[in-house]
Each structure stands twice: as structure tokens, then as C-alpha cells.
Amino acid sequence: MNQPQSPHVVVIMGVAGTGKTTIGPLLADRLGVPYAEGDDFHPEANIAKMSAGTPLTDEDRRPWLDAIGRWAHGRAGLGGVVSCSALKRSYRDRLRASAPGVVFVHLTGDRKLIEDRMAHRQGHFMPTALLDSQFATLQPLQSDEAGVAVNVAGSPEEIAERAVTALRGLDG
């Protein structure tokens, strides 16, 4: 399997329920780089808010984004995959300010499919009730942002393979 020409630091992004935590490690394995779970970078206060069904504010997200940005910066030239919703352009700009070479894999899909997947996952703090706020906040990747959109229909292995193929296209 061909890997991208240079070891990218990939931010796997999308609304809750798109499979960032499932696809991220599969993608990292295929690329031969480490994976970091973005939720692990959240301060406890953020997790408590989301668990209570309260959407985070931009102010709440700043320390989280900065921590992810520091991890990505430390992986520059080495490669890595980190999950992060990165729903707004300003969030992605903040990540790029810390780690200019990051590329994004935006996991996209039908709202009904994503809601169904969210309803069936276990042990996650993000309630299905916050999905509407996630879609309302989402600003898809723009043409001037390094990244690709990958549909989440199909098995995790199929989605990860589509992501690898799409990333190869960035190097070509």
C-alpha cells in the first residue's frame, strides 16, 4: 500500500458521531503513524458541560484546540493522526497557527446515519441532543484549506481506505 509522500499530521474532523475515534486509529495504522484521541485533550470542565448537554463556547474550546495544536506541532515532519471536531474555520485556523502543515480529513455523511450511530454507541459523553448544535456550527473545509472530505457510509475499514486514497491525492 502506498503511503503519502511525506508524513502528514492529519486532523480527522467532523460532527459528533461521524466516527473520528473509530476511523482515526485505523487511518493512523494505515499511515504508520501514532494516533491521539482529541477528546483526551479536553479539560474536565468541557467534558462536564458536554455530558450535561451544554454545547461548548469558543472560549471553552480554546485551551482544547491549543493542546491539540501543540501535539500536532510536536509531530511535524514525523506524522500523526489526531481527532478533533474542528467544526469552524476559526478552529482550523487556530490549529494551523500551531502546526502549519496539518491537513484535515473531514468525515461527512447523512445526518440520519450519523444520529443512528450516535444513538448506538456506548460510553461516550456526547449526547445525541447536541447533534443539531454540531451541524449548526459546522463550516465545511474551504478550497484554500489543505484537506479532503470523506463520506462515512460503509464499514470503518472502507472509510479509512477512502481517507488514505484521498490523502494520496494531496501529494500527487
Automatic annotation (TrEMBL):
<keyword id="KW-0067">ATP-binding</keyword>
<keyword id="KW-0418">Kinase</keyword>
<protein>
    <recommendedName>
        <fullName>Gluconokinase</fullName>
        <ecNumber>2.7.1.12</ecNumber>
    </recommendedName>
</protein>
<comment type="pathway">
    <text>Carbohydrate acid metabolism.</text>
</comment>
<keyword id="KW-0311">Gluconate utilization</keyword>
<keyword id="KW-0547">Nucleotide-binding</keyword>
<dbReference type="GO" id="GO:0005524">
    <property type="term" value="F:ATP binding"/>
</dbReference>
<dbReference type="GO" id="GO:0019521">
    <property type="term" value="P:D-gluconate metabolic process"/>
</dbReference>
<comment type="similarity">
    <text>Belongs to the gluconokinase GntK/GntV family.</text>
</comment>
<dbReference type="InterPro" id="IPR027417">
    <property type="entry name" value="P-loop_NTPase"/>
</dbReference>
<dbReference type="GO" id="GO:0005737">
    <property type="term" value="C:cytoplasm"/>
</dbReference>
<dbReference type="GO" id="GO:0046316">
    <property type="term" value="F:gluconokinase activity"/>
</dbReference>
<keyword id="KW-0808">Transferase</keyword>
<dbReference type="Pfam" id="PF01202">
    <property type="entry name" value="SKI"/>
</dbReference>
<dbReference type="InterPro" id="IPR006001">
    <property type="entry name" value="Therm_gnt_kin"/>
</dbReference>
<dbReference type="InterPro" id="IPR031322">
    <property type="entry name" value="Shikimate/glucono_kinase"/>
</dbReference>
